[in-house]
Amino acid sequence: MGQSLSLPRFIMFDLDGTLVDTAEEIAHSVNQTLQEAGFDPLPHSDIREWIGKGTAWLFGQALESVTGNEDVRESLLYEQYYPRFLQVYHDLTGVHSLPYEGAPEALAQLRQAGCRLAVVTNKDRGLSQRLLESQGLTSAIDLLVGGGDTPEGKPSPQPLQKALRDAGSTPGEALFVGDSSNDVVAARRAGVPIWAFNHGYNHGEPIAQANPDVVLDGFADLLQRLGLVASSTPLHS
């Protein structure tokens, strides 16, 4: 797609699969918890496809896969081991993850150009904060909307609408950048343009199938479409 956009006043980013590749540490955390519960580990490729709907949904999907119980989220097993999963994941956050190439530099450049930046994610707020801190990205972000900050997560528009309110911005002067069909649907419902990276997860499906306004090849592509030239300026904390 050849679409470009004048520099938005407010740019919102998804986190996992958009700014940071977290698939390996999520898979390690799920499998460590499953093994503690007496189950065999799952293939990392399966777990990767479940990323994007929040930690509670993802862990429930893992338990459903190993037990065959579609109602496992209502079980004592889930009640006992979901908090353990959160603790394991908290401890591993930042260990196996890395920002996507050019992400820290792009955030710094967008801030220097006068954009306000937000992260809007279904990931638990505490885990999101810890991940941003571990990757040195906290100083680039003006606000965070995480899992639990709104009654519903993406694909509901509520997280994006909250970010817009908190930033004092409107859909017409904003852009959302994500990597999944959830991101596309949430942005459409919130009336915000949606660009999506092809390096993310999207439940194992090509992101182009979700019909975002633009499919991005990386952060250099993002900056170019916004009329900026990618630089090697580091992110200062």
Short characterization:
The protein has 9 helices and 8 strands.
Task: Kindly describe this structure.
The chain has 237 residues and is of the alpha/beta class. It has two domains: 10-21 and 99-225, HAD superfamily/HAD-like (Rossmann fold); 23-92, Orthogonal Bundle (DNA polymerase, domain 1), CATH 1.10.150. It has nine helices and eight strands. It has helices at residues 23-36, 44-48, 55-67, 76-92, 103-112, 125-134, 158-167, 181-190, 219-225; strands at 10-13, 20-21, 98-99, 116-124, 143-147, 174-178, 194-197, 214-216. It has a six-stranded parallel sheet with strand order 5-4-1-6-7-8, with helices on both faces. A two-stranded antiparallel ribbon has the order 2-3. α1 (23-36) crosses α4 (76-92) and α3 packs across α4 (76-92). The model has no long low-confidence stretch (mean pLDDT 93).
What is the β-strand count?
Answer: 8
Shape: globular
Task: Indicate the low-confidence ranges by residue numbers.
Answer: none
Rg from alpha-carbon coordinates: 17 Å
Q: Which percent band covers the strand fraction?
A: 5-15%
Structural class, from secondary structure content?
Answer: alpha/beta
CATH architecture of the largest domain: 3-Layer(aba) Sandwich
Core attributes:
six-stranded parallel beta sheet; 41% helix; 237 residues; 2 domains; Rossmann fold; alpha/beta; DNA polymerase, domain 1; two-stranded antiparallel ribbon
Q: Helices, strands, pairings?
A:
Elements: E1 10-13, E2 20-21, H1 23-36, H2 44-48, H3 55-67, H4 76-92, E3 98-99, H5 103-112, E4 116-124, H6 125-134, E5 143-147, H7 158-167, E6 174-178, H8 181-190, E7 194-197, E8 214-216, H9 219-225
Parallel strand pairs: 1-4, 1-6, 4-5, 6-7, 7-8
Antiparallel strand pairs: 2-3
Helix pairs in contact: 1-4, 3-4
